[in-house]
Prior knowledge:
- By secondary structure, the chain is α/β, with parallel strands linked by helices.
- Helices cover 27% and strands 21% of the residues.
- It starts with a strand and ends with a helix.
Amino acid sequence: MADWDYVIVGGGSAGCVLANRLTEDPSVKVLLLEAGPADKSMWIDIPAGFTKLLNHKTFNWNFEMEAEEGMANRRIPCPRGRTLGGSSSINGMLYVRGQPLDYDTWGQLGNRGWSYSQILPYFKKSENFERGGDDSRGTGGPLNVADMCDTHELCDAFIDAAAASGYPKNKDYNNGNQEGFGYYQVTMKNGKRQSTARAFLDPVRNRPNLRIETDALVSNIILEGKRAVGVAYSVLGQKREARVNREVIVSCGSVQSPGVLEHSGIGQPELLRRHGIEVKHELKGVGENYGDHFAPRMNWRVKLPITLNEQTRGLKLVREIYKYYATGRGALALTAGVVFGFVRTRPGLDAPDMQFHMAHASYDAAQKRLLEKEPGMTVVIGQCRPDSRGSIHIKSATPGVEPAIRPNFLSAQIDRDATVAGMQIARKIVSHPSLEKYIAFENKPGKDVNSYDEWLDYARQNGQTTYHVVGTCKMGSDPMAVVDDRLRVHGIAGLRVIDASIMPTVPSGNTNAPTIMVAEKGADMIKEDAKAGLKAAA
Ligand SMILES: Cc1cc2nc3c(=O)[nH]c(=O)nc-3n(C[C@H](O)[C@H](O)[C@H](O)COP(=O)(O)OP(=O)(O)OC[C@H]3O[C@@H](n4cnc5c(N)ncnc54)[C@H](O)[C@@H]3O)c2cc1C
């Protein structure tokens, strides 16, 4: 008998959910291995710490994408969480489920059990929506979902300007109808971040059947023939092994799960041989099908000193700190995106294809996130369901080394068209006369950018990821699929991938809530399969 029934590799958004759900059965022993350290830091708990975490040396892997011509040969930063909670410990805390269409597409691709009506119960199960539950919203789940703590006059005016421009207001964009504008819902509780470590792991840390090891980098899965029997890992340079009676579950996220498979000899034979790795199992799709939300940012100078740029400096910052600790509200409890917008960029579309994030703040460099001194506001433009696909593969046979992240952004014509149309709509809304009182001028890209080519060039020179990497171990039954619709790796027994990498297409919005849903459903499938196995054996 091995020491563990299940080993979960990666304690991120998905890994923490799995650790909680699998240890609900006291007879099951689970080991959770996380490469990063414990998640003890005020920057993680305080929402405004997001900007510190974007390039934090300890809690962030700080990857960079490969330079590509379509992105003006820039190396775009690709932050990823490196601690318990994973990217949910460093993310923007925006709670967005996506559209029913996203999951109906997964179902339509042949993935049984993944259409909207079938996954909705898992969104509901995971959440505690502070406003209360109904047909589509849940209460009593581990993950607290709150409304944005404060409104702001510039944000209100932006939502009004959108409505006056023909884009409706929407009070709950997570109830199956995304369309419109309003304030984001956030994964926070009492003004503090709700990572999956806080929501799912902290309440069950004392279960005797759960062991959590941090600073534990998994190098590879141990295979006996075509069966996974354990993992090899190292803790602060010391080599260890953990063996399983049942399954190894890879939850290292879309950037690193392909690498764990490749280091184990599972993937594209030529690529593995190039790195001197013995080919144990050919799976062409490992590391392919990378999808993400590419997003240019526009910003405006604001006439009045009412934006976060000036409100978080000097004495005003002292006031905000006091307010935060006294009430859990104010500038420190805000996320990077405050207002959402979901719009259709052209007539004839069934559903919105564009997401806006608006905030009453502006930054001098998108990734360093240093607030500008002059009053400003930002709108981030992100196509909901891009067609462009890239890849992520290992660059070295050494585990833990940055992989080659090739996003291939804007390679599809439809993505270029939607991105340009999205920026034009943002300009149209902010040009509405009702905003005249606030807006001094468009700073970026500025009034000289007008033609299709000029807009596109601006996007290529300035666009970033909104950090929603998915799809690199996609679910399906075609030759490029890595896992089946029960998230079992094709051709290998005792091995699943459960994280954002299994998503066959990019959901229409931020990806934390969909990843948590995937993990909730994955945990149920593991339990069902174990039960069926026991019955078959009896
Ligand atoms: C900066 C940023 C902002 C974001 N903002 C939002 C937002 O506002 N709203 C939203 O919905 N989504 C947001 N996202 C996206 C969302 O957080 C991710 O989609 C989600 O967290 C992915 O979960 P995951 O479980 O797939 O991977 P992760 O949460 O990244 O977890 C993977 C874990 O595996 C660990 N790991 C990796 N390799 C190994 C190894 N070899 N051995 C052991 N452990 C390993 C990592 O350290 C990490 O903890 C953001 C992401 C980032 C990075």
